[in-house]
Amino acid sequence: MSADKLVVRNLSKEFRVGRESVLAVDDVSFSIAENEFVSVVGPSGCGKSTLLTVAAGLGDPTGGSILVDGEVIRGPGRDRGVVFQSYSLFPWLTVRANIEFALRGEKIGRVERRLRALEQLDVVGLGNFADAYPSQLSGGMRQRVAIARALSYRPSVLLMDEPFGALDALNRRTMQELLTKVWEDHRLTVLFITHDIDEAVFLSDRVLVMSARPGRIVQDVPIRLERPRRVEMQTSEEFLELKQHLLKSVTSTDPALAAGGRR
Ligand SMILES: Nc1ncnc2c1ncn2[C@@H]1O[C@H](COP(=O)(O)OP(=O)(O)OP(=O)(O)O)[C@@H](O)[C@H]1O
After folding, report:
1. Name one Pfam family in it (predicted).
2. In 3-state terms, what secondary structure has residue 73?
3. Which ipTM value was assigned to this complex?
4. Can you give the residue ranges of every domain in the chain?
């Protein structure tokens, strides 16, 4: 078993809203081994994004800590690439320039920045779109650029928060296939947040289930489907069993869903 790359240790996060306080994440602990792909699923509002935001260094924990390579994180850093649901590309820059811009803090020259941008665009299948502007691309293509940008500074951990949440079903499936291929080729350590249980099973080595708020980890389910993963696997008995198990687990943790109510 390889070493732990990312360790979440007794993490809690409380928000103050006026006089009220909202406990979003409550004493969450887990580890992700190097090169492991771990997804977190759970009912809406259970604290998944909060967890990722703290891991990205964009919010301080109220209690506990997150470590990458044994170092407590204290803010955003280039050891972590982050991809959110919204692509956040600069519309006035070309695809290549968007990535080069992200690399401006690296101690590398212009030529190296350009080469890295082109290399990562190739990885996500957009080698021919380097000079296009974001407005000329589909949602799926923009999200590919966001992934290429996150990979361009060679982070040791990739943090993804519902990255395909805004895409239609077809684009979403294409992106899942692309991501699994990129992961299988490059073996990254990934923390992936999603609502979509099929997506979590298809992509992951492990799926963590969070309870309804305050979010706690209630299950840690290994996904032992063979790799490389193929779309056809989604109809296999093993896949469907895992999906059923996770669905049940998420539903039972959410009082509104368990009661058959709509949110
Ligand atoms: N900045 C904030 N200020 C106050 N409350 C917040 C803030 N961010 C999140 N919350 C609250 O913390 C809880 C967890 O939110 P979070 O966005 O992490 O959940 P989530 O599981 O990602 O939800 P979803 O699946 O719907 O995206 C929610 O009750 C939310 O309203």
Report:
1. ABC_tran
2. coil
3. 0.96
4. 4-79+157-258, 89-154
Task: List, for residues 162-216, the tens digit of each pLDDT value.
Answer: 999 988 988 899 999 999 999 988 889 999 999 999 999 999 999 999 998 889 9
Q: Tokens 């966001």 identify what position?
A: 146
Nearest in space to 155 (alpha carbons), one of 220, 93, 80, 233: 80
Indicate if ligand 1 lies below 6 Å from the C-beta of 24: yes
Judge: domain 4-79+157-258, CATH 3.40.50.1370. no
Q: Which residue's CA is minimally distant from atom 12 of ligand 1?
A: 24
Average pLDDT of the residues of the chain: 92
Closest residue CA from atom 6 of ligand 1: 15
Residue nearest to atom 9 of ligand 1 (CA): 50
Amino acid at 31: S
- DSSP H or E run through 115: helix 110-123
**Residues of 3-23 as b/e, b for ≥16 C-beta within 10 angstroms?**
ebbbbbbebbbeeeeeeeeee
